[in-house]
């Protein structure tokens, strides 16, 4: 990776997809549409190449949720849990899997947070997922504000 420096700029307001933001070193970063309509872009802008919002990584395939187990060096380990039906015992089995995912520098997570990850092309030897956002903050609300239109 021929990347000179990793820059992260915190913004006052959450940008909308399509906006272009100028970094202090003169680089222009466009906030991309990642193709997941219920996820909002983060409140910061970075020049990470492997960022789904500001880089060149495309999200395709599955979108999963999980709890952060560990955070290290731009990567996270996420524990994903799901229910699997067993026809023999006629019961659900709780299954879990640890998934390594790339953490873009514009998203800050701690151990125990619930995050949304999306499948991408292989980014490293065992990483083919990227963190898209945190569970309560970056997800659009189920009941949005209703604006009434007054008729004349
Ligand atoms: Zn970013």
TrEMBL record:
Keywords per UniProt: Ribonucleoprotein, Ribosomal protein, RNA-binding, rRNA-binding
A GO CC annotation given for this chain: cytosolic small ribosomal subunit
Keyword RNA-binding: yes
A GO BP annotation: translation
Subunit structure: Part of the 30S ribosomal subunit.
Function: One of the primary rRNA binding proteins, it binds specifically to the 5'-end of 16S ribosomal RNA.
Family named by the database record: Belongs to the universal ribosomal protein uS17 family.
Record-given protein name: Small ribosomal subunit protein uS17
């Amino acid at each position: 990776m021929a990347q000179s420096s990793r820059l992260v700029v915190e913004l006052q307001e959450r940008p909308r997809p399509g906006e272009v933001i100028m970094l202090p070193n003169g680089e222009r970063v466009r906030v991309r549409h990642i193709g997941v309509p219920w996820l909002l872009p983060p409140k910061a802008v970075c020049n990470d190449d492997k960022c789904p919002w500001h880089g060149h990584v495309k999200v395709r395939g599955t979108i999963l949720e999980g709890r952060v187990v560990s955070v290290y060096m731009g990567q996270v380990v996420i524990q994903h849990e799901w229910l699997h039906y067993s026809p023999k015992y006629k019961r659900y089995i709780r299954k879990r899997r640890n998934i390594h995912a790339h953490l873009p520098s514009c998203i800050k997570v701690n151990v125990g947070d619930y995050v949304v990850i999306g499948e991408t092309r292989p980014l490293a030897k065992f990483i083919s997922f990227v963190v898209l956002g945190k569970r309560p903050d970056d997800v659009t609300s189920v009941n949005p504000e209703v604006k009434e239109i007054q008729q004349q």
